[in-house]
Give the backbone structure.
Amino acid sequence: MLIGFAGLGRMGRPMAEHLASAGHAVHAFDPMADTAPGSVRLVGNPVALADTEISISMLPDGVVTRALVTDSLRAAAPGHLHIVMGTVGPQVVHELAALPWIEVIDAPVSGSVAMAEAATITTMVGASPEQYERVRPLLAAMTAAQFHAGPAGAGSTAKLAVNTVLAGLSQAVAEGILLAQAAGLDPATFYGVLAASAAGAPYVGYKRQAYLAPDTTPVAAPVALIRKDLGLALELAHRHRLTLPGSEAAFAVLDDAVDAGLAEADMAEVLTTLRRSNALALSEILSPTSQTGALQ
Protein backbone atom coordinates (compact mmCIF):
# COMPACT_ATOMS: atom_id res chain seq x y z
CA MET A 1 0.00 0.00 0.00
CA LEU A 2 1.18 3.55 -0.76
CA ILE A 3 1.14 5.58 2.46
CA GLY A 4 1.84 9.26 3.02
CA PHE A 5 3.54 10.26 6.27
CA ALA A 6 3.91 13.81 7.60
CA GLY A 7 6.35 14.41 10.45
CA LEU A 8 9.68 12.64 10.88
CA GLY A 9 10.40 13.79 14.41
CA ARG A 10 11.51 11.73 17.41
CA MET A 11 8.43 9.52 17.25
CA GLY A 12 7.44 9.79 13.60
CA ARG A 13 10.77 8.72 12.13
CA PRO A 14 10.81 5.18 13.58
CA MET A 15 7.07 4.82 12.98
CA ALA A 16 7.47 5.58 9.27
CA GLU A 17 10.38 3.15 9.11
CA HIS A 18 8.28 0.38 10.66
CA LEU A 19 5.63 0.89 7.97
CA ALA A 20 8.27 0.59 5.25
CA SER A 21 9.75 -2.50 6.92
CA ALA A 22 6.27 -4.06 6.85
CA GLY A 23 6.34 -3.83 3.06
CA HIS A 24 4.48 -0.57 2.45
CA ALA A 25 5.67 2.16 0.11
CA VAL A 26 5.99 5.24 2.34
CA HIS A 27 6.29 8.79 1.01
CA ALA A 28 7.19 11.17 3.84
CA PHE A 29 7.29 14.94 4.23
CA ASP A 30 9.10 16.91 6.90
CA PRO A 31 10.56 20.36 6.15
CA MET A 32 13.21 19.84 8.85
CA ALA A 33 14.39 16.44 7.60
CA ASP A 34 17.33 16.05 5.22
CA THR A 35 17.07 12.28 5.05
CA ALA A 36 14.44 9.59 5.49
CA PRO A 37 14.88 6.32 7.39
CA GLY A 38 15.29 3.00 5.62
CA SER A 39 13.38 2.73 2.36
CA VAL A 40 11.07 5.65 3.19
CA ARG A 41 11.03 8.16 0.32
CA LEU A 42 11.32 11.84 1.25
CA VAL A 43 9.10 14.19 -0.79
CA GLY A 44 9.64 17.92 -1.07
CA ASN A 45 6.03 19.06 -0.90
CA PRO A 46 3.24 17.87 1.41
CA VAL A 47 0.79 18.05 -1.50
CA ALA A 48 2.41 14.83 -2.76
CA LEU A 49 0.85 13.01 0.19
CA ALA A 50 -2.58 13.52 -1.39
CA ASP A 51 -1.63 10.97 -4.06
CA THR A 52 -1.54 8.16 -1.50
CA GLU A 53 -4.35 5.86 -0.38
CA ILE A 54 -3.89 6.56 3.32
CA SER A 55 -1.92 9.37 4.93
CA ILE A 56 -0.67 9.76 8.48
CA SER A 57 0.36 12.85 10.42
CA MET A 58 2.64 12.79 13.45
CA LEU A 59 2.80 16.55 13.92
CA PRO A 60 3.35 18.68 17.04
CA ASP A 61 0.03 20.52 17.30
CA GLY A 62 -3.41 21.19 15.90
CA VAL A 63 -2.39 24.23 13.84
CA VAL A 64 0.02 22.38 11.55
CA THR A 65 -2.21 19.28 11.47
CA ARG A 66 -5.21 21.34 10.38
CA ALA A 67 -3.14 23.08 7.70
CA LEU A 68 -1.90 19.75 6.33
CA VAL A 69 -5.38 18.28 6.00
CA THR A 70 -7.25 21.37 4.78
CA ASP A 71 -4.56 22.63 2.41
CA SER A 72 -2.10 19.92 1.35
CA LEU A 73 -4.64 17.09 1.23
CA ARG A 74 -7.35 19.16 -0.43
CA ALA A 75 -6.81 17.34 -3.73
CA ALA A 76 -6.92 13.84 -2.22
CA ALA A 77 -8.91 11.28 -4.21
CA PRO A 78 -12.32 10.11 -2.95
CA GLY A 79 -11.91 7.51 -0.22
CA HIS A 80 -8.59 8.91 0.98
CA LEU A 81 -8.27 8.37 4.73
CA HIS A 82 -6.06 10.44 7.00
CA ILE A 83 -4.91 9.26 10.44
CA VAL A 84 -4.08 11.97 12.97
CA MET A 85 -1.48 10.37 15.24
CA GLY A 86 -0.15 13.53 16.87
CA THR A 87 -1.76 14.83 20.06
CA VAL A 88 -4.04 17.65 18.92
CA GLY A 89 -7.12 17.22 21.10
CA PRO A 90 -10.58 15.95 20.12
CA GLN A 91 -11.93 19.34 19.01
CA VAL A 92 -9.49 19.55 16.07
CA VAL A 93 -10.21 15.94 15.12
CA HIS A 94 -13.98 16.54 15.17
CA GLU A 95 -13.49 19.58 12.93
CA LEU A 96 -11.39 17.65 10.42
CA ALA A 97 -13.62 14.57 10.50
CA ALA A 98 -16.56 16.76 9.48
CA LEU A 99 -14.89 17.74 6.18
CA PRO A 100 -16.96 16.30 3.31
CA TRP A 101 -14.13 15.42 0.92
CA ILE A 102 -11.82 13.33 3.12
CA GLU A 103 -12.07 10.71 5.87
CA VAL A 104 -10.24 11.64 9.07
CA ILE A 105 -9.71 9.48 12.15
CA ASP A 106 -7.35 9.80 15.11
CA ALA A 107 -4.88 7.34 16.61
CA PRO A 108 -2.52 9.15 19.03
CA VAL A 109 0.13 7.07 20.74
CA SER A 110 1.48 6.60 24.24
CA GLY A 111 5.07 5.62 24.95
CA SER A 112 8.66 6.80 24.74
CA VAL A 113 10.97 7.30 21.77
CA ALA A 114 12.69 4.02 22.61
CA MET A 115 9.30 2.30 22.57
CA ALA A 116 8.50 3.87 19.18
CA GLU A 117 11.81 2.52 17.89
CA ALA A 118 10.90 -0.95 19.18
CA ALA A 119 7.27 -0.66 17.96
CA THR A 120 6.01 -1.25 21.51
CA ILE A 121 3.99 1.95 21.89
CA THR A 122 0.22 1.92 22.37
CA THR A 123 -2.35 3.65 20.17
CA MET A 124 -5.88 4.76 21.02
CA VAL A 125 -8.09 4.95 17.95
CA GLY A 126 -11.10 7.13 17.23
CA ALA A 127 -12.85 5.75 14.14
CA SER A 128 -15.89 3.89 12.88
CA PRO A 129 -15.66 0.10 13.16
CA GLU A 130 -15.09 -0.12 9.40
CA GLN A 131 -12.34 2.51 9.46
CA TYR A 132 -10.70 0.83 12.42
CA GLU A 133 -10.52 -2.53 10.63
CA ARG A 134 -9.12 -0.80 7.56
CA VAL A 135 -6.22 0.83 9.43
CA ARG A 136 -5.52 -1.73 12.14
CA PRO A 137 -2.87 -3.64 10.10
CA LEU A 138 -0.99 -0.36 9.56
CA LEU A 139 -1.22 0.58 13.22
CA ALA A 140 -0.05 -2.91 14.21
CA ALA A 141 3.14 -2.35 12.20
CA MET A 142 3.97 0.65 14.40
CA THR A 143 2.47 -0.23 17.77
CA ALA A 144 2.18 -3.19 20.13
CA ALA A 145 -1.38 -2.50 21.31
CA GLN A 146 -4.33 -0.92 19.53
CA PHE A 147 -7.49 0.16 21.35
CA HIS A 148 -10.65 1.19 19.51
CA ALA A 149 -11.82 3.94 21.87
CA GLY A 150 -14.89 5.02 19.88
CA PRO A 151 -15.71 7.40 17.00
CA ALA A 152 -13.37 10.07 15.63
CA GLY A 153 -12.01 12.16 18.50
CA ALA A 154 -12.28 9.38 21.07
CA GLY A 155 -8.64 8.43 20.60
CA SER A 156 -7.53 11.98 21.36
CA THR A 157 -9.76 12.10 24.44
CA ALA A 158 -8.20 8.87 25.71
CA LYS A 159 -4.69 10.21 25.02
CA LEU A 160 -5.33 13.41 26.97
CA ALA A 161 -6.73 11.43 29.89
CA VAL A 162 -3.64 9.18 29.84
CA ASN A 163 -1.31 12.18 29.79
CA THR A 164 -3.19 13.72 32.69
CA VAL A 165 -2.19 10.67 34.71
CA LEU A 166 1.33 10.75 33.25
CA ALA A 167 1.90 14.39 34.19
CA GLY A 168 0.65 13.73 37.71
CA LEU A 169 2.86 10.66 38.01
CA SER A 170 5.90 12.59 36.77
CA GLN A 171 5.24 15.27 39.37
CA ALA A 172 4.69 12.69 42.12
CA VAL A 173 7.95 10.85 41.35
CA ALA A 174 9.87 14.14 41.47
CA GLU A 175 8.29 15.08 44.78
CA GLY A 176 9.03 11.64 46.23
CA ILE A 177 12.70 11.89 45.25
CA LEU A 178 12.93 15.41 46.66
CA LEU A 179 11.39 14.39 49.98
CA ALA A 180 13.57 11.30 50.30
CA GLN A 181 16.73 13.25 49.50
CA ALA A 182 15.86 16.07 51.92
CA ALA A 183 15.40 13.50 54.70
CA GLY A 184 18.80 11.98 54.03
CA LEU A 185 18.10 9.09 51.64
CA ASP A 186 20.29 8.43 48.62
CA PRO A 187 18.14 9.22 45.52
CA ALA A 188 19.27 6.09 43.66
CA THR A 189 18.51 3.88 46.65
CA PHE A 190 15.10 5.46 47.04
CA TYR A 191 14.38 5.04 43.32
CA GLY A 192 15.01 1.32 43.62
CA VAL A 193 12.53 1.16 46.49
CA LEU A 194 10.00 3.18 44.48
CA ALA A 195 10.31 0.97 41.38
CA ALA A 196 9.67 -2.15 43.47
CA SER A 197 6.82 -0.63 45.46
CA ALA A 198 3.08 -0.47 44.83
CA ALA A 199 3.76 2.81 42.99
CA GLY A 200 6.23 1.15 40.59
CA ALA A 201 4.38 1.78 37.32
CA PRO A 202 6.18 1.04 34.01
CA TYR A 203 6.89 4.78 33.71
CA VAL A 204 8.86 4.66 36.96
CA GLY A 205 10.99 1.83 35.61
CA TYR A 206 11.96 3.30 32.27
CA LYS A 207 12.44 6.89 33.52
CA ARG A 208 15.03 5.96 36.16
CA GLN A 209 18.03 7.46 34.37
CA ALA A 210 16.08 10.52 33.29
CA TYR A 211 15.48 11.37 36.95
CA LEU A 212 18.83 10.29 38.37
CA ALA A 213 21.21 11.26 35.54
CA PRO A 214 19.43 13.83 33.35
CA ASP A 215 22.65 15.31 31.94
CA THR A 216 23.65 12.04 30.28
CA THR A 217 20.20 10.67 29.38
CA PRO A 218 18.63 11.42 25.96
CA VAL A 219 15.42 13.42 26.00
CA ALA A 220 12.41 11.16 25.48
CA ALA A 221 9.49 13.55 26.04
CA PRO A 222 10.34 17.23 26.48
CA VAL A 223 8.74 19.48 29.08
CA ALA A 224 7.16 21.63 26.36
CA LEU A 225 5.41 18.62 24.83
CA ILE A 226 3.85 17.31 28.04
CA ARG A 227 2.90 20.88 28.97
CA LYS A 228 1.11 21.24 25.63
CA ASP A 229 -0.72 17.95 26.12
CA LEU A 230 -1.71 18.76 29.69
CA GLY A 231 -2.92 22.16 28.56
CA LEU A 232 -5.19 20.47 26.02
CA ALA A 233 -6.44 18.11 28.74
CA LEU A 234 -7.27 21.04 31.02
CA GLU A 235 -9.08 22.80 28.16
CA LEU A 236 -11.16 19.67 27.67
CA ALA A 237 -11.84 19.47 31.41
CA HIS A 238 -12.96 23.10 31.55
CA ARG A 239 -15.21 22.53 28.54
CA HIS A 240 -16.95 19.87 30.60
CA ARG A 241 -16.95 22.13 33.68
CA LEU A 242 -14.54 19.89 35.56
CA THR A 243 -11.93 20.97 38.11
CA LEU A 244 -8.74 18.88 38.17
CA PRO A 245 -6.64 20.26 41.04
CA GLY A 246 -3.78 17.79 40.63
CA SER A 247 -3.45 18.55 36.94
CA GLU A 248 -3.61 22.29 37.57
CA ALA A 249 -0.75 21.96 40.07
CA ALA A 250 1.32 19.84 37.67
CA PHE A 251 0.71 22.36 34.88
CA ALA A 252 1.95 25.19 37.10
CA VAL A 253 5.23 23.34 37.72
CA LEU A 254 5.61 22.67 33.99
CA ASP A 255 5.09 26.40 33.43
CA ASP A 256 7.87 27.09 35.91
CA ALA A 257 10.11 24.61 34.09
CA VAL A 258 9.52 26.37 30.76
CA ASP A 259 10.21 29.75 32.36
CA ALA A 260 13.46 28.31 33.78
CA GLY A 261 14.68 27.38 30.30
CA LEU A 262 13.87 23.67 30.52
CA ALA A 263 11.30 23.52 27.72
CA GLU A 264 13.39 21.12 25.62
CA ALA A 265 14.63 19.11 28.62
CA ASP A 266 13.05 15.77 29.46
CA MET A 267 9.81 15.94 31.43
CA ALA A 268 11.58 14.24 34.34
CA GLU A 269 13.38 17.52 34.91
CA VAL A 270 10.40 18.82 36.81
CA LEU A 271 12.64 17.48 39.58
CA THR A 272 15.21 20.14 38.68
CA THR A 273 12.50 22.78 38.87
CA LEU A 274 11.41 21.58 42.31
CA ARG A 275 15.00 21.50 43.54
CA ARG A 276 15.51 25.08 42.37
CA SER A 277 12.33 26.31 44.04
CA ASN A 278 13.37 24.54 47.24
CA ALA A 279 17.06 25.48 46.99
CA LEU A 280 17.21 27.35 50.30
CA ALA A 281 15.55 24.57 52.29
CA LEU A 282 17.70 21.91 50.62
CA SER A 283 20.91 23.83 51.23
CA GLU A 284 20.07 24.05 54.93
CA ILE A 285 18.95 20.42 55.24
CA LEU A 286 21.82 18.96 53.21
CA SER A 287 24.61 21.14 54.57
CA PRO A 288 27.38 19.23 56.41
CA THR A 289 26.35 20.66 59.77
CA SER A 290 22.79 19.42 59.35
CA GLN A 291 23.45 15.96 57.92
CA THR A 292 23.47 14.26 61.31
CA GLY A 293 20.14 15.77 62.26
CA ALA A 294 18.59 14.98 58.87
CA LEU A 295 19.41 11.31 59.23
CA GLN A 296 18.06 10.91 62.76
Summary: The chain has a mean pLDDT of 94. The chain has 14 helices and nine strands.
